[in-house]
Amino acid sequence: MSSPASFLTVSDLRINRPPSGGRPAEDAPIIAHLSFTLAQGEFLQINGASGIGKSTLLNALAGLLPAAAGSITIGGYAANDKHLATAYVQQGYGLLPWKTVGANIALPGLLGGRMRSEAAQRHIIETLQLTDLCTRYPQTLSGGQRQRAALARAFCQEAQLLLLDEPFSALDADKAAEAFELLLALREQYPVTTVMVTHHALPRRLAAHKRLTLLPDFQYTLEDV
Protein backbone atom coordinates (compact mmCIF):
# COMPACT_ATOMS: atom_id res chain seq x y z
CA MET A 1 0.00 0.00 0.00
CA SER A 2 1.14 3.60 -0.60
CA SER A 3 2.24 5.63 2.41
CA PRO A 4 -0.08 8.47 3.46
CA ALA A 5 2.42 10.98 2.10
CA SER A 6 2.25 9.39 -1.34
CA PHE A 7 -1.35 8.78 -2.39
CA LEU A 8 -0.58 8.71 -6.12
CA THR A 9 2.72 7.25 -7.30
CA VAL A 10 3.85 7.11 -10.92
CA SER A 11 7.09 5.17 -11.22
CA ASP A 12 9.21 5.01 -14.40
CA LEU A 13 6.03 4.95 -16.48
CA ARG A 14 6.03 4.07 -20.15
CA ILE A 15 2.92 4.25 -22.34
CA ASN A 16 3.17 3.04 -25.93
CA ARG A 17 1.49 4.46 -29.00
CA PRO A 18 -0.85 2.12 -30.85
CA PRO A 19 0.95 0.26 -33.65
CA SER A 20 0.71 1.87 -37.08
CA GLY A 21 2.23 1.44 -40.51
CA GLY A 22 3.70 -1.91 -39.60
CA ARG A 23 5.65 -0.39 -36.73
CA PRO A 24 5.16 -2.28 -33.45
CA ALA A 25 3.84 -0.29 -30.53
CA GLU A 26 6.86 -0.99 -28.36
CA ASP A 27 9.02 1.05 -30.74
CA ALA A 28 6.88 4.17 -30.39
CA PRO A 29 6.29 5.23 -26.77
CA ILE A 30 4.40 8.45 -26.20
CA ILE A 31 5.42 8.64 -22.52
CA ALA A 32 8.60 7.15 -21.05
CA HIS A 33 10.61 7.31 -17.82
CA LEU A 34 7.99 9.44 -16.06
CA SER A 35 7.94 9.45 -12.26
CA PHE A 36 6.14 11.65 -9.72
CA THR A 37 4.08 11.45 -6.53
CA LEU A 38 1.09 13.30 -5.11
CA ALA A 39 -0.10 13.41 -1.53
CA GLN A 40 -3.77 12.88 -0.81
CA GLY A 41 -5.75 16.04 -1.54
CA GLU A 42 -3.05 17.65 -3.66
CA PHE A 43 -3.72 19.30 -7.01
CA LEU A 44 -1.44 18.64 -10.00
CA GLN A 45 -1.57 20.80 -13.12
CA ILE A 46 -0.22 19.22 -16.33
CA ASN A 47 1.12 21.37 -19.16
CA GLY A 48 2.82 20.61 -22.45
CA ALA A 49 2.58 21.04 -26.19
CA SER A 50 -0.22 19.48 -28.21
CA GLY A 51 0.42 15.79 -28.85
CA ILE A 52 3.02 15.49 -26.10
CA GLY A 53 0.98 12.93 -24.14
CA LYS A 54 -1.08 14.89 -21.61
CA SER A 55 -4.40 13.19 -22.38
CA THR A 56 -2.59 9.87 -22.71
CA LEU A 57 -1.30 10.29 -19.16
CA LEU A 58 -4.79 11.06 -17.85
CA ASN A 59 -6.17 7.99 -19.63
CA ALA A 60 -3.47 5.89 -17.97
CA LEU A 61 -4.29 7.38 -14.55
CA ALA A 62 -7.94 6.53 -15.22
CA GLY A 63 -7.00 2.92 -15.90
CA LEU A 64 -8.03 3.15 -19.55
CA LEU A 65 -4.53 2.55 -20.97
CA PRO A 66 -2.08 -0.11 -19.78
CA ALA A 67 1.46 0.69 -18.75
CA ALA A 68 4.03 -0.90 -21.05
CA ALA A 69 6.57 -0.49 -18.25
CA GLY A 70 6.65 1.02 -14.80
CA SER A 71 3.60 1.42 -12.62
CA ILE A 72 0.79 3.65 -11.38
CA THR A 73 -0.41 3.22 -7.80
CA ILE A 74 -3.35 5.21 -6.42
CA GLY A 75 -4.25 4.78 -2.78
CA GLY A 76 -2.46 1.45 -2.82
CA TYR A 77 -4.33 0.16 -5.87
CA ALA A 78 -3.50 -0.17 -9.54
CA ALA A 79 -5.16 2.50 -11.68
CA ASN A 80 -7.66 0.01 -13.14
CA ASP A 81 -8.54 -1.67 -9.83
CA LYS A 82 -12.29 -1.97 -9.24
CA HIS A 83 -11.86 -0.76 -5.65
CA LEU A 84 -10.60 2.64 -6.85
CA ALA A 85 -13.16 5.39 -7.45
CA THR A 86 -12.04 7.82 -10.15
CA ALA A 87 -14.09 10.68 -11.61
CA TYR A 88 -12.95 11.74 -15.09
CA VAL A 89 -14.10 14.85 -16.97
CA GLN A 90 -12.82 14.30 -20.51
CA GLN A 91 -12.69 16.77 -23.36
CA GLY A 92 -16.20 17.16 -24.73
CA TYR A 93 -17.62 16.46 -21.25
CA GLY A 94 -19.06 13.02 -22.07
CA LEU A 95 -22.69 13.88 -21.38
CA LEU A 96 -25.22 11.47 -22.90
CA PRO A 97 -27.49 13.49 -25.22
CA TRP A 98 -30.53 11.24 -24.70
CA LYS A 99 -30.46 11.73 -20.92
CA THR A 100 -31.40 14.86 -18.99
CA VAL A 101 -28.80 16.81 -17.06
CA GLY A 102 -30.11 15.30 -13.83
CA ALA A 103 -29.90 11.78 -15.24
CA ASN A 104 -26.36 12.42 -16.49
CA ILE A 105 -25.30 13.59 -13.05
CA ALA A 106 -26.84 10.49 -11.42
CA LEU A 107 -25.42 8.05 -13.99
CA PRO A 108 -22.29 6.93 -12.05
CA GLY A 109 -24.50 5.75 -9.19
CA LEU A 110 -26.65 3.72 -11.58
CA LEU A 111 -23.47 2.08 -12.88
CA GLY A 112 -22.43 0.99 -9.41
CA GLY A 113 -20.35 3.97 -8.35
CA ARG A 114 -20.49 5.39 -4.85
CA MET A 115 -22.31 8.72 -4.69
CA ARG A 116 -22.33 11.45 -2.06
CA SER A 117 -25.37 11.96 0.14
CA GLU A 118 -28.50 13.42 -1.46
CA ALA A 119 -27.95 16.62 0.54
CA ALA A 120 -24.39 16.93 -0.76
CA GLN A 121 -25.54 16.29 -4.32
CA ARG A 122 -28.18 19.00 -4.03
CA HIS A 123 -25.57 21.40 -2.65
CA ILE A 124 -23.16 20.65 -5.52
CA ILE A 125 -25.90 21.15 -8.11
CA GLU A 126 -26.88 24.45 -6.47
CA THR A 127 -23.26 25.61 -6.27
CA LEU A 128 -22.88 24.95 -10.00
CA GLN A 129 -26.13 26.81 -10.76
CA LEU A 130 -27.78 23.77 -12.32
CA THR A 131 -30.93 23.43 -10.21
CA ASP A 132 -33.19 24.81 -12.94
CA LEU A 133 -31.42 22.89 -15.71
CA CYS A 134 -31.73 19.31 -14.44
CA THR A 135 -34.73 18.50 -16.65
CA ARG A 136 -33.09 19.81 -19.81
CA TYR A 137 -30.96 17.87 -22.29
CA PRO A 138 -27.25 18.57 -22.93
CA GLN A 139 -27.78 19.70 -26.52
CA THR A 140 -30.01 22.55 -25.29
CA LEU A 141 -27.29 23.94 -22.99
CA SER A 142 -24.50 26.41 -23.60
CA GLY A 143 -20.89 25.23 -23.45
CA GLY A 144 -20.49 26.65 -19.97
CA GLN A 145 -23.63 24.89 -18.75
CA ARG A 146 -22.46 21.55 -20.18
CA GLN A 147 -19.10 22.05 -18.50
CA ARG A 148 -20.80 22.67 -15.14
CA ALA A 149 -22.97 19.58 -15.61
CA ALA A 150 -19.86 17.48 -16.18
CA LEU A 151 -18.27 18.93 -13.04
CA ALA A 152 -21.44 18.18 -11.08
CA ARG A 153 -21.37 14.56 -12.20
CA ALA A 154 -17.73 14.29 -11.13
CA PHE A 155 -18.18 15.89 -7.70
CA CYS A 156 -21.43 14.07 -6.91
CA GLN A 157 -19.39 10.88 -7.01
CA GLU A 158 -17.49 10.05 -3.84
CA ALA A 159 -14.28 9.77 -5.84
CA GLN A 160 -10.76 9.27 -4.55
CA LEU A 161 -9.22 10.84 -7.66
CA LEU A 162 -10.53 13.58 -9.96
CA LEU A 163 -9.13 13.84 -13.50
CA LEU A 164 -9.88 16.89 -15.65
CA ASP A 165 -8.81 17.10 -19.30
CA GLU A 166 -8.94 20.71 -20.52
CA PRO A 167 -12.30 21.20 -18.80
CA PHE A 168 -12.50 24.91 -19.66
CA SER A 169 -10.94 24.92 -23.13
CA ALA A 170 -14.23 25.77 -24.87
CA LEU A 171 -14.87 28.81 -22.65
CA ASP A 172 -13.70 32.36 -23.15
CA ALA A 173 -11.33 33.88 -20.59
CA ASP A 174 -14.04 35.40 -18.40
CA LYS A 175 -16.17 32.25 -18.35
CA ALA A 176 -13.09 30.11 -17.70
CA ALA A 177 -12.18 32.29 -14.71
CA GLU A 178 -15.71 31.88 -13.33
CA ALA A 179 -15.50 28.13 -13.83
CA PHE A 180 -12.16 27.97 -12.02
CA GLU A 181 -13.72 29.76 -9.06
CA LEU A 182 -16.55 27.23 -8.95
CA LEU A 183 -14.02 24.40 -9.08
CA LEU A 184 -12.15 25.99 -6.17
CA ALA A 185 -15.33 26.27 -4.12
CA LEU A 186 -16.13 22.60 -4.68
CA ARG A 187 -12.58 21.44 -3.89
CA GLU A 188 -12.62 23.39 -0.64
CA GLN A 189 -15.85 21.71 0.46
CA TYR A 190 -15.20 18.29 -1.05
CA PRO A 191 -11.41 17.79 -1.05
CA VAL A 192 -10.22 15.28 -3.62
CA THR A 193 -6.83 14.57 -5.15
CA THR A 194 -6.98 16.31 -8.53
CA VAL A 195 -5.00 16.08 -11.76
CA MET A 196 -5.91 18.63 -14.42
CA VAL A 197 -4.63 19.30 -17.91
CA THR A 198 -5.08 22.98 -18.76
CA HIS A 199 -3.55 25.76 -20.81
CA HIS A 200 -5.40 28.45 -18.85
CA ALA A 201 -3.56 30.48 -16.25
CA LEU A 202 -4.92 29.44 -12.87
CA PRO A 203 -6.29 32.12 -10.53
CA ARG A 204 -4.02 32.68 -7.54
CA ARG A 205 -6.53 31.10 -5.14
CA LEU A 206 -6.71 28.00 -7.33
CA ALA A 207 -2.97 27.60 -7.79
CA ALA A 208 -2.03 23.94 -8.06
CA HIS A 209 0.24 22.36 -5.48
CA LYS A 210 2.44 20.98 -8.27
CA ARG A 211 2.95 21.59 -11.98
CA LEU A 212 4.12 18.84 -14.34
CA THR A 213 5.32 20.01 -17.75
CA LEU A 214 5.83 17.34 -20.40
CA LEU A 215 8.66 18.15 -22.82
CA PRO A 216 10.00 16.63 -26.06
CA ASP A 217 12.21 13.53 -25.96
CA PHE A 218 10.44 12.22 -22.84
CA GLN A 219 11.82 14.99 -20.67
CA TYR A 220 9.67 16.70 -18.04
CA THR A 221 9.81 19.16 -15.20
CA LEU A 222 7.96 18.87 -11.90
CA GLU A 223 7.76 21.89 -9.64
CA ASP A 224 5.98 22.96 -6.50
CA VAL A 225 3.79 26.00 -7.13
UniProtKB/TrEMBL annotation:
Which stretch is the leader sequence?
Answer: none
Q: Which domain of life is it from?
A: Bacteria
Alphabetized GO MF terms: ATP binding; ATP hydrolysis activity
Q: Which UniProt keywords apply?
A: ATP-binding, Nucleotide-binding, Transport
Q: Which Pfam families match?
A: ABC_tran
Domain ABC transporter residue range list? 8-225
Which PANTHER family does the entry mention? ALIPHATIC SULFONATES IMPORT ATP-BINDING PROTEIN SSUB (PTHR42788:SF13), TAURINE IMPORT ATP-BINDING PROTEIN-RELATED (PTHR42788)
Q: What is this protein called?
A: ATP-binding cassette domain-containing protein
Origin species = Alloprevotella tannerae
